[in-house]
């Protein structure tokens, strides 16, 4: 059997053939593959719905929709779509209408439209709701919010919730960032009391959500676990193909970059490569000396990451059709790079080198900070930045919360 490896070079994904090898990496099996290996026993005799999108595939790139639709003894009767829809063809944040899928003839219930929680009518006649979505390991990515509120709906309706587990692409050891410190900042981009980067698979997180009293009604939860996955593996180590989980998360390295610059994108004033060919992979703006910015960021000596000068012209979004300069981010040791911290060091370096205070500029432009505060789960980070605290001080302030969560999650770990 042939296998393939993915490499990221200058912002592009190179695909190279490789000979099959017997290793722990090549033996990582997805929950949906374990389900098939077990001849779909947990679904036997049940009418099921499926929450999925294009990322819900096996290593052969077969859609879970098609696999379950053809599986003997499986009654797939409804589909449920998260943000971006079941076919990933809806832009971020856009509402989606429920409809009938012309390809399968199944009803498609939108969980990113008039409701984000399955209604009793949507769940009527189901025995179980199956979840197979690849998330990014970041709290602000809405798929884990969809998972939890769907679990609550299943608990209230008395039906089973089944998670087909998937690797956390950032690995299972990394824990970074703030917890939700104020209820007014709880939202669909900060739904659960976990750090910004939480170091759990979706199956592990589902167990925590179900057991911690975060739901109005817990559900009967079944997790079909991975085989061969270890906590120190990032996506590139799994040997699995990556299907874009959303338009700006096109390859297996993308979750690293999404965490590293996603917060900057919520402030504005700098391009993160969205609107160009390098989504989340850059920090750039007009009139920035790219060499000085790269020198300043590399001087921090953050482990596992390098910053390289770059110039480009976005074709849409921030600074559309303007030539801008800054840095492109390269991860030399992704498992050990401090991802969330990069947002703060980059903002600090922009201010130091280019005189660009993104927060001050936003205040003068009468911009609001709702989304920045929501993804942080607190306004304390914004206040610290505006008060002139250093990036190092801000990052250090997360430590106690990170360590507490690291202990709290232990009883829910499966691997």
Which second-level CATH architecture of the largest domain applies? 3-Layer(aba) Sandwich
Query: What fraction of the residues are assigned to beta strands by DSSP?
Result: 15-25%
Tally of domains: 2
Can you tell me the overall shape?
A: globular
**What topology, given as strand order, has the largest sheet?**
5-6-4-3-7-8-9
Low-confidence segments, given as residue ranges, are 1-25
What top-tier CATH class of the largest domain fits best?
A: Alpha Beta
Q: Termini distance?
A: 27 Å
Q: What class, by secondary structure content? A: alpha/beta
Q: What is the CATH third-level topology name of the largest domain?
A: Rossmann fold
Task: Provide the residue-averaged pLDDT.
Answer: 93
Strands, count: 12
What is the alpha-carbon Rg in Å? 21 Å
Multimerization state: single chain
Say which CATH homologous superfamily of the largest domain is assigned: Uncharacterised protein PF07075, DUF1343
């Amino acid at each position: 059997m042939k296998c393939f490896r993915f490499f990221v070079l200058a912002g592009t994904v190179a695909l190279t053939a490789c000979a099959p090898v017997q290793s722990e990496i090549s033996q990582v099996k997805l929950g949906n593959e374990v389900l098939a290996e077990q001849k779909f026993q947990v679904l036997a005799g049940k009418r099921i719905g499926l929450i999925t999108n294009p990322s819900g595939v096996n290593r052969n790139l077969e859609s879970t929709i098609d696999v379950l639709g053809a599986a003997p003894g499986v009654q797939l009767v409804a589909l449920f779509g998260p943000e971006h829809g079941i076919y990933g063809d809806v832009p971020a944040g856009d509402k989606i209408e429920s409809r009938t899928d012309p390809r399968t003839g199944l009803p498609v219930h939108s969980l990113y439209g008039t409701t984000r929680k399955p209604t009793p009518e949507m769940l009527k006649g189901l025995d179980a709701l199956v979840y197979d979505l690849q998330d990014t390991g970041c709290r602000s990515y809405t798929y884990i919010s969809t998972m939890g509120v769907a679990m609550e709906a299943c608990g209230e309706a008395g039906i089973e919730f089944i998670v087909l587990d998937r690797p956390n692409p950032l690995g299972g050891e990394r824990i970074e960032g703030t917890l939700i410190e104020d209820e007014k900042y709880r939202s669909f981009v900060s739904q659960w009391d976990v750090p910004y980067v939480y170091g759990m698979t979706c199956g592990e997180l589902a167990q925590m959500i179900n057991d911690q009293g975060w739901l109005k009604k817990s559900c009967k939860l079944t997790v079909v676990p991975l085989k061969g996955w270890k906590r120190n593996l990032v996506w590139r180590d799994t040997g699995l193909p990556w299907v874009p989980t959303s338009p700006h998360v096109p390859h297996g390295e993308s979750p690293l970059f999404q965490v590293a610059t996603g917060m900057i994108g919520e402030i504005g004033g700098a391009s993160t490569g969205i609107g160009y060919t390098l989504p989340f992979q850059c920090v750039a703006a007009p009139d920035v000396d790219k060499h000085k910015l790269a020198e300043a960021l590399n001087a921090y000596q953050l482990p596992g990451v390098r910053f390289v000068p770059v110039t480009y012209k976005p074709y849409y979004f921030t600074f559309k059709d303007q030539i801008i300069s800054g840095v492109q981010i390269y991860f030399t040791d992704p498992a050990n790079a401090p991802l969330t911290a990069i947002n703060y060091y980059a903002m600090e370096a922009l201010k130091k080198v280019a005189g660009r205070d993104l927060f001050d500029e936003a205040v003068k432009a009468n911009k609001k900070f709702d989304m920045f505060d929501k993804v942080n789960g607190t306004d304390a980070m914004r206040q610290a930045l505006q008060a002139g605290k250093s990036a190092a001080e801000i990052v250090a302030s997360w430590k106690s919360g990170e360590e507490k969560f690291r202990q709290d999650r232990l009883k829910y770990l499966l691997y």
